Amino acid sequence: MARKKCSFCNTTEKKDNPFIAGNGVYICSNCVISAYKILFGEDDKNNSINDENVNLLIPKEIHKILDDYVIGQERAKKTLSVAVYNHYKRIFKNSTDDDTNIDKSNILLIGPTGSGKTLLAQTIARFLDVPIAISDATNLTEAGYVGEDVENILTKLLQAADGDVAKAQRGIIFIDEMDKIARMGENRSITRDVSGEGVQQALLKIIEGSVVNIPPKGGRKHPNQDFLQIDTKNILFICGGAFDGIEDIIQRRLGANQLGFGQAKRSNKEKESVMHLIESSDLVQYGIIPELIGRLHVTATLEPITLDDMVRILVEPKNSIVKQYQKLFEIDNVILTFEEDALRAIAQKAINRKTGARGLRSIMEETLVDIMYELPELSGYEVVITEDVIDNSIKPIYIKNSKSA
Questions:
Q1: Mean of the pLDDT values across residues 281-299?
Q2: Residue 382's beta-bridge partner residues?
Q3: I want to staple 161 with a disulfide (CB 3.0 to 4.6 A). Which of 10, 144, 156, 168 is the partner?
Q4: DSSP SS3 for 39
């Protein structure tokens, strides 16, 4: 007689894994438990994620970690540290002894391109040991349009969790370029309005917390495929965007005069100074639907990166760009050195290109590509990068290391 096999995982029946039979099919107890966890998540008492013994990082500890990798942006780091701590405290430490339910608070980061929004989210996810999925809102479409379904973000998160549904259900999703899906409003472009507002509506469902059916391998849904269920109520959503021009909306609300010579002479610094006064109504006027704003409860603004901050970004973080290239040179027994003026020249180029900190790597690559081409032949040398190397493309200074002579 053939041994019974689980119709789901194909395992054979064992004493410690009994089967349930029905209509010619079998399911083992392990698969029953897995199905329960998928359907009900933390309600499984034997596998609850409400673990009193979980060691949560407090806000000051989170802030300190961010300091090691993100230069400046002190207010944003403090706001984010508190919001992340409260979110995971709600999951792991929240008592269910009374009728008070703590709702999750999703986060909106507002700041110029390259100011550190994505890096903040990546750093937090890495040190909290939770999976993170990063998506660009401009690639998302509502159902029926060509592009990427909003629900595919959850598939990315599941893949980042190595298929562990329970782990994915307490991960982080970062959605960048949120301002690019603003619906048509005052001074807004109509080119994105048709599907842009539809994307916002589609995001509502997964951001607020609901059970969503997703294709395990991504792609479009079709009736005959299998689905996994992901409960999003404990997933932290961090949305980011530059929201160019929103400072003018804030100033109008504050009663600033938009006419006359004063408007033309208003400095960027004066415009930036009002960003911390942003309110929900400003975002609604910009083109984000009120329902979505209502689900992004914590707002943190990031300042444009100054020249001095840009130089610090080059050298100070634990994984700074300069340190990365120095290590790359070290593999070939070459010392790479940057003079202070060279670092400032690189920083100034990035500011001129308006790419923020993310433009530093491409500038560095352009500067060092010819040197790296010859790198295997430079063993035992020190390569000194001067300001003229950056600005005038002259050759660097080569110094023979006396220890290798």
A1: 93
A2: 335, 399
A3: 168
A4: helix
Residue 190 exposed, middle or buried by CB count within 10 Å (0-12, 13-18, 19+) = exposed
The closest of 390, 383, 370 to 332, measured between CA atoms, is 383
User: Which tokens in the block code for residue 384?
Assistant: 């000194």
Higher pLDDT, 159 or 104: 159
Residue identified by tokens 């530093």 is 360
**Surface-to-core class of residue 183, CB atoms within 10 Å of its CB (0-12 exposed, 13-18 middle, 19+ buried):** buried
pLDDT of residue 44: 42
Q: How many CA atoms lie within 13 A of 367 on its CB side?
A: 29
Phi, psi of 241 (to 5 degrees): -175, 155
Q: Which residue do the tokens 């035992």 mark?
A: 380
- In sign, the C-alpha dihedral spanning 175, 181, 183, 189 is positive
**Structural element, H or E, at residue 301:** strand 298-301
Q: Which two tokens stand for residue 196?
A: 């842009």
Q: Enter the pTM of the model.
A: 0.74
**94-98, 102-106, 342-346: range with lowest mean pLDDT:** 94-98
Among 135, 381, 385, smallest CA distance to 235 is for 135
For the CA atoms of 212, 218, 222, 228, the dihedral, rounded to the nearest 10 degrees, stands at -40
pLDDT digits 0-9 by tens, 21-80: 877 788 877 777 777 666 655 444 333 444 545 678 899 999 999 999 999 899 999 999
Cα distance between residue 176 and residue 139, in whole Å: 10
For residue 154, give both structure tokens: 């959850």
- The amino acid occupying position 392 is N
Task: Give whole-number Cα distances, 243 to 13, 122, 216, in Å.
Answer: 58, 21, 33
CA distance to 21, 27, 304, 387, 401, per residue, from 24 (Å): 7, 11, 65, 77, 78
